[in-house]
Amino acid sequence: FTTLVYVPPLWVEQTITGQLPMFSELDAAGQDQRCLILNIYNILLSLLLAGYLYHIAIIYFNKPRNAAVYVLVVFFGTFLWYYLRAQTVEIFQVLFFTAAYFHLIRADRFAAEQGPGSRYIFHALMASVFIVFLCLQKSVFILLMPLTAVFLVFAGFRRSDGIRLREFFTVRIQSVWKPLMATTVFPFCIAIGLIAVFNTLCFGSPF
């Protein structure tokens, strides 16, 4: 999966030059050009990460100036900037985790305000997709799957206060389990299947 996320910049290079040789086969000018394209790709990813961090801060601060300061502090007050400058997997892990967190919080907010409607489903699905991306990069992130599912279940029941017990089990659970299946169980099963396939191809065993 880490190879796949670098397809866009390499495709751009192939479109510009008409070829895509190995890095060791490039001359000095070719190496500089590839590094430039990869660095521009990193800048775009960094801008996307900054956007997610900004909107996360807006959720809590509700002040654009404070949110902008928060993004600057995160970027330049930590070691994050050093990881964003190089072609490493950390930039994708930070981006995917931040995006998953943002969509989880938005799903929780919309569930609390409107119930498990279309906006809750959209953000729950996006959160699950980014968790899947994390799992495809490193198998250890599989541990986030059950936590995400439990969080989304509780988020879907946020507006259950004051509902009779019988109505809770007949109406509320029925209104949440279908979105939960579509937004978490199905994507997570696909991710686990893909990881098993990759492990079998690479190591001869799905585990």
Please characterize this protein's 3D structure.
This protein has helices at 7-17, 28-61, 64-76, 80-84, 90-114, 118-137, 144-156, 165-203. It has eight helices and no strands. 77% of the residues lie in helices and 0% in strands. It has 207 residues and is mainly α.
Task: Describe, in short, the structure shown.
With 207 residues, the chain is mostly helical. 77% of the residues lie in helices and 0% in strands.
Please name the defining characteristics of this protein.
globular; 207 residues; mainly alpha
Q: Strand pairing plus helix content: what structural class?
A: mainly alpha
Distance between the termini: 17 Å
State the total count of DSSP E strands. Answer: 0
Mean pLDDT, nearest integer?
Answer: 78
Work out the helix count.
8
Q: What proportion of the residues is helical, as a percent range?
A: over 70%
- Major beta-sheet overview: none
Unreliable runs: none
Topology as H/E string? HHHHHHHH
Overall 3D shape: globular
Percent strand: under 5%
How much is the radius of gyration in Å? 21 Å
